[in-house]
User: Fold these one by one.
Assistant:
Number 1:
Amino acid sequence: MKRKIYLNMQPLAEAYALFTDKFANHTTASETIPSHEASGRVTACPVTARLSAPSFHAAAMDGIAVQAATTFGASDDSPVSLDIGGKQALFINTGQPLPDSYDAVIMIEHILLAEDQQTGIIRAPVYPWQNVRKVGEDIVATELLFPSNHLITPPDVAALLTAGCPDVKVRKKPQITIIPTGSELVDIRTTAIVPPGRTIESNSAVLAALAVNAGAEVTVTPIIADADDTLTTNVMDAVRSDADVVVINAGSSAGSADYTVKIIEKLGEVLVHGVTIMPGKPTILGMIDNKPVIGSPGYPVSAIISFEQFVVPLLEAMQGLSTTQPAIARAILARDIPSRGGIEEFRRMITGKIGSNLVTLPLKKGAGAITTLTRANSILRIAASSEGETRGSKVNLELLRPQSQIENTLLCTGSHDLCLDILHDLLKKNSPYTLASTHVGSLGGILAVRDTMTHIAGSHLLDPASGEYNTPYITRYLQQKNIALITLVHREQGFIVLPGNPENIQTISDLAREDICFINRQSGSGTRVLLDNELDKAGLDPDDISGYDQEEYTHMAVAVAVLSGKVSTGLGIRAAANALNLDFVPLTEERYDLIIPAEYLELASIQTVLSLITSSQFSKAVAEKGGYSTRETGIRVL
Amino acid sequence: MKRKIYLNMQPLAEAYALFTDKFANHTTASETIPSHEASGRVTACPVTARLSAPSFHAAAMDGIAVQAATTFGASDDSPVSLDIGGKQALFINTGQPLPDSYDAVIMIEHILLAEDQQTGIIRAPVYPWQNVRKVGEDIVATELLFPSNHLITPPDVAALLTAGCPDVKVRKKPQITIIPTGSELVDIRTTAIVPPGRTIESNSAVLAALAVNAGAEVTVTPIIADADDTLTTNVMDAVRSDADVVVINAGSSAGSADYTVKIIEKLGEVLVHGVTIMPGKPTILGMIDNKPVIGSPGYPVSAIISFEQFVVPLLEAMQGLSTTQPAIARAILARDIPSRGGIEEFRRMITGKIGSNLVTLPLKKGAGAITTLTRANSILRIAASSEGETRGSKVNLELLRPQSQIENTLLCTGSHDLCLDILHDLLKKNSPYTLASTHVGSLGGILAVRDTMTHIAGSHLLDPASGEYNTPYITRYLQQKNIALITLVHREQGFIVLPGNPENIQTISDLAREDICFINRQSGSGTRVLLDNELDKAGLDPDDISGYDQEEYTHMAVAVAVLSGKVSTGLGIRAAANALNLDFVPLTEERYDLIIPAEYLELASIQTVLSLITSSQFSKAVAEKGGYSTRETGIRVL
């Protein structure tokens, strides 16, 4: 096995220029399609009107057509009487052609009709062409309707039809072929049970969806195993097909099974191998038979970011479109984000509006974690020249959702509880609000409240001295703030163990047994405080416990560690054990509260939260999780 | 004919509430679809993960799998040697499962391989689980992936597949039936030549495109004539079909052919008839057999705005989505916009970025002019309680295009010339910039430059005293500014007449003939100044000329007035006559310049303009129009 060597590593802008310069004139051919179906397509040449609109002088109102001159002098004192149906006036409806001898329309509201409906009295004159839509008032035949490279909108369709253009010449949709590769991959559509050690292929579906959104038509080939010949044949088949762009996913880095770069090199030219972005570094930009061929990274977030940076702009350019720029907003950064110099980072962020500011928090970095992208509503780009951003600074975010939706995002930072997911679901069902929770432990949540970086903090911090939950910490950390403390649930904490409790863990003292390997929660979490308190009461020392230094950040992560057999047990809530069909040995019950600055209680979003947690929908869903009580849910403690 | 009476006129918010309250629980049924096809759909219930991801401990890097403990102590001074392929270490690629006895991966870059490839030397330890993606690190089986009512994005598709969900329960697409009505309408797909007095039906296509964008499936019925029985039958057929929503377009006001309200009243209930918005007032919101039935206005802009305000949010709500809010931006208003109190106005605006501010100009008001919507890139809503907005004030705009595209819009305010359309087309073809021209006459353009309300002003203002174009006016009005004056074209001005010049118009004196009816340009336009100068030279008085007081705003509008037979002639450019196959009697040649504040010459957009006007593409296209010379194009006069 060789060292990873990137053949031609480039910064983003340079890589993009090296690539797109080769394909600057690769716009797709044009085709003529019905204007009815043209919304979302791009004009291939200037479009000029064939007919004027209106194509005749038309009544702009319901009323009577007249010669304006016959109405001159009409007033309250000297009303004018018109013979309707004779030569003087004629009933006319909006849109009807104005007969030749008339040059104005009097609105029906301004006419007093005699009983015979044949005489109309008016008390004010009209001027020539009043209430008339003149020929060409909207569109003049021969005039430019749309230039080349114009993205046709729904209203544009109406303009095309009105201007007598039943069809329009547009750019053909670019064709893209996506080739998923990897011996470890399975197609979940054809594989009911995923064999151990195999991975579900998901990149081709997301890249296909991104390509469709960019106006392309997509072919996804079956999964190709990591065998040079098959892949070579498939790549050449794709290049020789109608495809305008070919994407090979993955095999773009330089492991022993990473054939992509060798194949592109053999069949064509590698322009760029490696881009100094993260995620997305192992991107290959190449060319075979004068067609763009991209080797896209295997990790899902890398694959998506690389595709958005290189393939989407190429697909847009092929249709004659400029690159769509994401909407940008300024936000206050809620945490330090260190970054490695020399590489441009795309951090996935959760952003919400607190007071008049947007506040943004980073999600995990891992390129392998697709949920960092599905949970994010914004992206923070940290330049290669930067070593990161500091908490409290103002940063530019690229928005992944409409700004209104980001402003309707309620930030919930602090301890994790499964009931927050129930609340999230109920909010989406019943309101325009989204609950975005990030898990930093109870103490982290309290500090976020202190610094105006969250709307809500979930907390279950026991004060060992008083035996009280949360209030002593609020007194200590939040004395400057007017705080509402509202109980969400009571919940059982205990030992999560394998089904049947094979290692017979019953009490806190069992953690000190030599055969037991424990997994801990991070310091600052309520569960950690609880553990330390129980150890203290039992006279045990952390050093006595194997695995005390191994930390996870959520109850579910603890449960997964137990399920995977890597540890014997961890402290967590019953619902987490239930969720994975594990067993549970109760240790204590604790109170889990929501800490909310009192000033936010007036917000419609918080009002909705408070009303939902006391609903029967909520208590019913909580009961189904097991290990919870809602006996004090919604009670304001402070 | 009766007076127009709106049965139940309501302000927008009240009308919306009256309507949507009736249909609050009308979400569509759910259906299960492949996750591969789910991008853009909306979850019908909470989606939980069926599998964890990774589903096994997996190598996060290419390298060798080891037990971390065997690497402890490795350093530059005491490298550790590992037997690869034996029990100590194993080659592993990214994504492969970590065999049971190992708990870490050493990156291939950090291993010095012996020649036999079987021994690896390392100079630093790894800690347990380093470079390993642990089970459930991304997704834990049973956890909430997405709540109800979640709009599925492309990355979400990857999360669904990765979490073992090959399909997903989503809301069915709402079905909408659109019934175009009107005896005057023709379908341009089936009617090669539009008969005189008939109108091309275009609303159903634009409403259908808007509905598709809102996630609906659309049925458009054939055009129904204004005959009560046919329409009644068709409406009932639609209501009894699978349609979730029925839209009748138009016949929603109260003219003699406006049957819609009567039909809804007869078959069901009219909730709202008339909304105090403009355009969009004659909207009917009704209900038949518990289904929403909308009578939508006939004017295209009214139809679109009414549909966007009432039908699009309904279609979104039926899928469980909140109403999409348009992006908002602040802009400086370049003109006064008076507004009638008591009615909420939706003014179509052109907006561009000048310096650090967005600047916005209103387009025409007419609800019949679809081009006011196709040319607009933003909407200014003027509240019913307001009597308008004043020039220079900051207003909130709803953006119809991405902000980046609006910021790439070059404002060109002033005199109209057809060569600006050529420039517009070349810009779209060769750059990300859009030229948005509004026609206010040469003097209007100069004043816009003075007030920093435009990037470019087109001008051909003759100074009669000196015989010079533009420079005397720049001295007079723009002495505070550093101005670049750049010639665009020379062009012939003359009399636009019917083919064959049947009225034998040859000189300026002919305008004073009794049998000649003239059409003028607005005051402040260069053509008006030219006319007045020529009249003066010929010793003629405006009062001598019949039609001197009738004004049009563009050359093309003058040409259309001649073509329609309403006037004998007007003064304009040869290209306008050519465009409509009219004849042209030359009077003089004039210089048409671009006035650009010198500080903008540095802008990439203006640089592009200056390079394009001196291109052969430009001069060739200009020559084709006729009546132009590019002999001095691109020369900087000032």
Number 2:
Amino acid sequence: MRLSTLFLRTLREDPNEAEVNSHKLLLRAGYIRRAGAGLYTWLPLGLAVKAKIEKVIREEMANAGAQEVFFPALLPREPFEATNRWTEYGDNLFRLQDRKKTDYLLAPTHEEMFTLLVKDLYGSYKDLPVALYQIQNKYRDEARPRAGLLRGREFVMKDAYSFDVTDEGLKAAYQAQRDAYERIFTRLGVDYVIVKADAGAMGGSASEEFLSPSPIGEDTFVRSPGGYAANVEAVATVVPPAIAIEGQPAAQVIATPAASNIKRVVQFATDNVQRADGEPWTAAHTLKNNVMALVSPEGKRELVVFGLPGDREVDAKRAEAAFSPNEVEQANEEDFAKHPELIKGYIGPVKDGKALLGLEGSSKIRYLLDPRVVEGSAWISGANESEKHIFDLVKGRDFNADGIVDIAEVREGDQAPDGSGELQLARGIEIGHVFQLGRKYAEALGLQVLDENGKLVTVTMGSYGIGVTRLVAVLAEANHDDKGLIWPSAVSPADVYVVAAGKDDVVYETAEKLAAEIVATGRTVILDDRLKVSPGVKFGDAELVGVPQIIIVGKGLEQGEVDLWDRRTGERRAVPLQSALQELN
Amino acid sequence: MRLSTLFLRTLREDPNEAEVNSHKLLLRAGYIRRAGAGLYTWLPLGLAVKAKIEKVIREEMANAGAQEVFFPALLPREPFEATNRWTEYGDNLFRLQDRKKTDYLLAPTHEEMFTLLVKDLYGSYKDLPVALYQIQNKYRDEARPRAGLLRGREFVMKDAYSFDVTDEGLKAAYQAQRDAYERIFTRLGVDYVIVKADAGAMGGSASEEFLSPSPIGEDTFVRSPGGYAANVEAVATVVPPAIAIEGQPAAQVIATPAASNIKRVVQFATDNVQRADGEPWTAAHTLKNNVMALVSPEGKRELVVFGLPGDREVDAKRAEAAFSPNEVEQANEEDFAKHPELIKGYIGPVKDGKALLGLEGSSKIRYLLDPRVVEGSAWISGANESEKHIFDLVKGRDFNADGIVDIAEVREGDQAPDGSGELQLARGIEIGHVFQLGRKYAEALGLQVLDENGKLVTVTMGSYGIGVTRLVAVLAEANHDDKGLIWPSAVSPADVYVVAAGKDDVVYETAEKLAAEIVATGRTVILDDRLKVSPGVKFGDAELVGVPQIIIVGKGLEQGEVDLWDRRTGERRAVPLQSALQELN
């Protein structure tokens, strides 16, 4: 690649459209251009990086025994109707009609199609196991496309699927893909953490995410000193032991003037009520009752009340995951207008000694509790009357609920569920996801094979994704400084960047010759052979483009020397021209 | 690739969905599967063939100096609005809206986006010329998807575009791509003819198509002994010389009872009227007036009458090309009801000595003529009265028209426009198209650069397409027999196909060892290592899959021999195992 002809223009200024560093630098260094909201065009340098990532993925998929196929992105509605994802995907799905008014979609993922393809070709346990994958354009109509390639609306994924007769087979297939992912990310030079994940809308059971730790990540994950790691959606709260109900004081309604929020309730209690254990009152002693609306993909709206300790908030992502495919909203004025029994600031499970919340209560609103609200635990709760609370309201004695749901925020210092210590919070970008789908899709689409006894059995599946175009951004985000990109050598658009820095013909001739010699060794070269461009501009572009090894053919040539420039360390040293080739690692 | 694990099931029977041989065989041999109307899934073998074609294209694009980029398939409406193609594409365009109700499309071709990208990055004549290309999924909502990969709705194209300041530059860029296409098709082993083409909906001037001759082709093209070749849409009719008007007999209206079609008119004339030159009357002496409706992309309907010699028909494709972007329909009953002056079977340009057809005529319907209707030519035409015709109606004396349009059928035996002899007709499949777009897109989208004098000049463009997935079908169509496919070696999914035909372990071990030795020489191998599958079935699959070189490890092994089987010639000969490798070409 010669900069005199390469389709590339570097930008001195940060483009307005970009917020995160990877996005800014990929635009400035001429790797991508914006084509629309969440839509990007790949320029030659970007395409070279993407191709290197795809090559590593293909090699490791082959090592894991997975075979490559390729599906259309434009797909008919029917298979997605059979699994209900046509509806469940909601606004995230691009839907369209053809000239005959038949429904189609742009596939966000291909579980249905892979399932149908295996059903189409295979029919016996002898045909299995099989693992298939594709590297293909995917589409999601994101509400907020952001950060360039990190969250686009058209993006490239590697999606693999395994098909087995037995659960053990699925586990082995899952492990093979998981191992392949570790090899892929290691080879690409991507820092990653494997965390337990919530299976979410995809259904299924065992599920892990590969996150690349990054302050700009959209995923929050936790880690413990003992090695526990999980996506925040997947953290199970450590449940305190149940408490004996016997001997606890009776619940009593107390007038709490103006105590319409937790802070004021705690202040009132501190000022007016002595705790039996002598400890000070805190928000953790109050039961906060949060009114939420679940909106189903079909648009059905259901109110639920969630009771949790008053010192915690609901975590929106955990709630989304728990109630998927429903969307979760805070109840609005209209909801409250329909339920005058809900007195804001004073909501609680019980009114006048009778259940108000819960399907068995007078409101008929489903009531769910945080797992910390254990049997025998006593709470200050709203009394469903203005300026009144109930003290010593005991779970299992005075109130009950329709179920437990684990959607309160996870905090730094919370205990890891496996006893491995206190959790620390961090942010990461999801770069891969492996999980055991089980038989959900095979059942929905009728993928069965004959077993050894000639009996039809349903196949069990795994699903394994890597965000290919997202990885370009993740690598750029993790490998840059204020001057530009610094690619790991495995994904650099070229192995060596040769700068002809000077005006004399001999500089250009030497640089050409050196570049040709490097190419002859099987390496790729970007050669800055631009005439009438100053060495300063050339060095700036070299730093921006980010090839890790740079050779400068310039002033030193009079002494028979060229400069080797390590883009990452910044170290620059003169070496004899003759030994430049050997000095490259 | 081992058949014991390869994701492949060959089919014994022709699938119902397939009509043409390439489609049948690609399905039966496990290269592709149907995913929806005009939508195909690529299985491992098909993907291998497609990858080989793409590799050849990439190498030759690089040789031609074109640089690879990659655009989204999902694109915003605006650029296509600026060139009016959002509307002009009519029903062929897949349109959709995102969650914000913003209009998008699935791109059928990318002229607009390439133009905008170059505008985005470049600004000076010094930046040009540049040629860019992509290999990418395209979408067209075909009215009749057919013949598998030959006319699909999602398909892969290589589309390249050149950008130049001068017309000479464009010509050179065009030639470079044209040369690259010749190299590509030659390397792939595709038979092709380069024909003059109509630029059609794409605008622009010089345009040639690469057609692969095939009886199942949708394109008709002509060839002359002297080397002329053109798509039937692009053939210019050889215009006979004008005839002196002076001295010709006056036009006269003659009652022609029941002569409501050309055949009857000729019969009537033969029975009742003596020709001045003594020759017999033929349909070529009558002027047939065809009433057609042009429907604009916006839905506007305009009637036109086309007059041509009565021995010719309108060619639908030539008419479509001439009137693009309008669609061409035959006038319907409703159209005739609005124009009672048009008497079916007796339509003509003149009534009672005054013009009826034409914008100047009483009907105000545009009247167009075939180029053979030259000045001074005399015709029998309908008199716009039931059962009456006008004889000796002379063009230029008795009637005129609003223009000439060359849309009559081209016939075997017609003269080539360049005087190179009689035309022969043949059918072909379009595999490539090169043309000089000129400044149409650059003007519509404002692509200008500063010239040497600092003046803004509009860039001139070329557009160059190859149907990548279609080529797979074209190659299959041209390379098969009744037993299966026979790939040219450049695109075969593997270089060698090794069959282990027997039950003894030594057969499998030898086949394995031989396959490994071939792979070690850098060639790819498909190894049929299936246990419990009969040699007959294995040979059948080998013929179906169509790798050109087959090695059979079987009975001959006792004599230390294997069979080399040439799939194309069918020749099968025993060679010593030791020399099998050298015997492969």
Number 3:
Amino acid sequence: MRELDLIGAIQAALTDRGDRTVRWSGDDAAVVRARPLAVTSIDTVVDGVHFRLDTHDAADVGWKALATALSDLAAMGAAAGEAYVALVLPEGFEGALELVGGMEELAAATGVTIAGGDVVRGPALTVAVTVVGWADSEDELVGRDGAAPGDVVGVTGDLGGSEAGRLALERGERGPLVERHLRPAPRLEEARALAAAGTSAMIDVSDGLATDARHLADASGVQLRLSLDAVPCAPGVSPEQAAVGGDDYELLFAIAPDRRADAEAAAPVSWLGEVRAGGGLVLLDAGGRAVEGLAGFEH
Amino acid sequence: MRELDLIGAIQAALTDRGDRTVRWSGDDAAVVRARPLAVTSIDTVVDGVHFRLDTHDAADVGWKALATALSDLAAMGAAAGEAYVALVLPEGFEGALELVGGMEELAAATGVTIAGGDVVRGPALTVAVTVVGWADSEDELVGRDGAAPGDVVGVTGDLGGSEAGRLALERGERGPLVERHLRPAPRLEEARALAAAGTSAMIDVSDGLATDARHLADASGVQLRLSLDAVPCAPGVSPEQAAVGGDDYELLFAIAPDRRADAEAAAPVSWLGEVRAGGGLVLLDAGGRAVEGLAGFEH
């Protein structure tokens, strides 16, 4: 398909589901009616690095590229708005429309409009997605930096499923964990509900609980003390594995202890531990001893 | 340099020059105080396709990647605000900080804040830049689609210089045209002044005048009749070459004839012809005959 034909076919595959879009596709830039605060993040996935076209359908790649970007908006408690997509397509790659179709499926599920894009040639399939979310005031948003000593620490859903799914996929298996790896769900609604419940800090678990808990602790200038036994595990996954597996896109958050019930009403939450003065992450075993070095998944 | 160190070094090389930035780097997403209309575009350049690292310094690549994206905001008449940058870095590439430095030079010159980014590994240096501009009302903005029969058609600056510079660069030469190819200037101020002067349609000349004039004609549903002899030429470039050379990032626009003087006061403008009912682009020679097939640059 010629490039201009491809761009036309892509545009035809998209739906403008925003009531805020003034100029959509076909001009030099999109124009969108803003709300007071714009929340913006860019995320990139590359064939052979973040996914493998020999195990991922193009539609899965499109879904996942948008999902990882939207997860950053979720982590802020923002309402998802628009996505802007750059596609680098290798010679002979025929899956561009399928890729955009997978992305559009998630866009439809989350109320996002894919409002602009760019299609170029290059050596490896690469998808860069910029997502823009909106909020009316700073109170609606949550950073990584507000956790305070005395807060309790929770996480949504369960962990380790995506990495277990990735390994299953490598072995040629299918199933619910593989599906979770291929089509992760950004926790946009849960995040806004948690933010409204008063979370003091929040981050999406993209690099694994152990790593992202450290990011939150560092940004807030506090110590997180979490019990390994309390980590919610995906089926067949050990707590150690659940603590290091990435790409789950659940939400890790801190909140004042008297708001615990509000958080539980907002989303399915497991309580992992507490925030103290100090720095870094301390993972505790069942006996209350600090765990040094996590074993995790066999690679 | 390890990835986290590199990201830290990149953040340290950037300046927040917005008075609108609520959350800058270091969180899941940037937060910016919006104006009523957000104008957004994404643009991607890939080594070996849009530039060649054997002739382009990394700093030039960074400059150019931001310049091409900002040029789309200029074409809309928007005020440039923030940029979000995804870098795909090949193994062994050491120029990431230099690249960001070149981008930051242009950001400083245009008042733009590089407010977020993503750094990943991949097979070829790729830079995807999303730029966000702002406007207070739709009246401030100009699309491609407003040209009307009776309008006159103008262009800023001169054309063909970037392509001539690219060919000189291939021959190992340097000079002002090479500089123009390496570090194009997005016409942000000229564009806003032209929009304020009442342009009915505008586009940036990125693919060459002949191609972009057709885009404008198609979007507006009109015919553009332009005189080849009137095309402003970069030094040493013929009118045919100037009409097909890309990457100049000058502005092509239509405006009502009684606003001609306002346009001339807004920017250095050459008048190329007029808008008629009909479709497509007609290029006329000195005798008023339609030119069929442009010779252009020798490749």
